[in-house]
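Task: fold both queries, return tokens.
Query 1:
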Amino acid sequence: MLSGNEDFPTLLINTVKKNKVISIIGLSKNVSKTTTLNHIINLLRDKHTIGVTSIGRDGEPYDAITELPKPKIIVEKGTIFATAEDSLKNSDIEPELIKGTDFATPLGIINIYKAKNKGYVELAGPSMNKQLKNLCNDMLKIGCDVIFIDGAFDRRSFATPLISNATILSTGASVSRNMEKVVDLTSHIYDLFNLDIVKDDKIKKISKDILLTVQVGIINDDYSINKLEEPTALGSSKVIFNQLTKDAKYLVIKGAITDSILDEYVSNKKVKDLTVIATDPTKLFFSEQVFHKFIKKGGCLKVLNRINLIAITVNHTSPLGYEFVNNSFMRLLQERINVPIFNLGPCDNLCL
């Protein structure tokens, strides 16, 4: 496992060679997500045509909780970026309109621009995955070598493999004052991002066929299927499990999977050795504790598509005035996470 910013440029350059759309998720506010993006832009500015956008609004000048100034996203001259019209008014760059879209937001229509000078930009991209995917495709056609999507963990659906090819996760002290809790949560998310994919081609095909027409389906041990009528798994866990028999081997769910589904399996006496299949890890919203109970009872969770987590960046300080011992924080994370972890430090010299 790697740490330290001396290896970050190498990892980034190698990643860009293979991945055209890269998402950056912040586990909470003030965890180095913007610092990470600014480091990336600084490292690649002379080598690649960079594109940037976000899922929903991000990059507001002040943190809504602390009211402290937030780090600004600095783009270089020639950067391609997509943002809403009103957000453009809060930026200090001279934009050149490249292409308009029909993606309407509360902040106006989203358009694609080129920066005519270096400066900061407020990003406000689409809130719908389909729109974001189309936007990224347009930016690639325009000439971007790589696109970075700026977002937050509560809007992590944009990290789906259907949109981005690789993901960087940012975590840090602002998640919680308790360092062990931050390590536990970060490790839990890492574990979800690295769940086993469905390797059985027959089960994979049946699962995909089920999800073409319904939100929830059951695959039995003889490969027969039962498509359920529930419009979503949310709030329907008891109804779903009432339709499972002892022959049920796979429960396929298209939407969000929460604690209630896993809890229902733990308390259910007739269903054993069940594998729950999710489309990808962005649909998983359950706690580490409930997940462990689910596994302990013999449950298994797999995904049709895995998230390509390439690195984790950390910020051991909080704007609320406390900080973790950086070496201890990094060491605890490295003991449980098998991807490169970096503390990129402040970006003050990059943000001027």
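Query 1 returned. Query 2:
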Amino acid sequence: MTKTSATPAQVLRRFRQVFSAVRAHFAQMEKRTGLGGAQLWALSIVRDQPGIGVSELARAMDVHQSTASNLVKSLVQRELLQAGRNGPDRRAVQLQLLPAASRLLKRAPGPVEGVLPQALGELDAATLRRLDRDLGALIELLGADARAAGIPLSQI
């Protein structure tokens, strides 16, 4: 075996390191704010895009619209978001951050979208393509449920 060859055990240890880093970050976020990672990420998107709708929020988070809708419902109930129909299309809901949410976001350790999305965003294009291809092969071998791709990591 050469220095550059990998064993399944070595790769498994790397996955454990990734999952551990992600889990530790979400735990720190929840400890500091009392909110889960997906909730904080949603609030940060609304902060950065006041008046955003639920569909646009779902696209920004790359989650299913029902997931975003449930996040919004929870955040409205906690009085962190306001959902109103104030725009030209009265059927569409516009989301606004409430002051309590702004205070929570200031306490949240960054990045609010999570450490994995941030790290993936820092990879060069070739590495990202290779990682996508290789993970695709692994997912195929696992027979993984495609619906899981639309669930925020903090909710897994």
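Both queries returned. Flag for query 2: The chain has one domain: 16-155.
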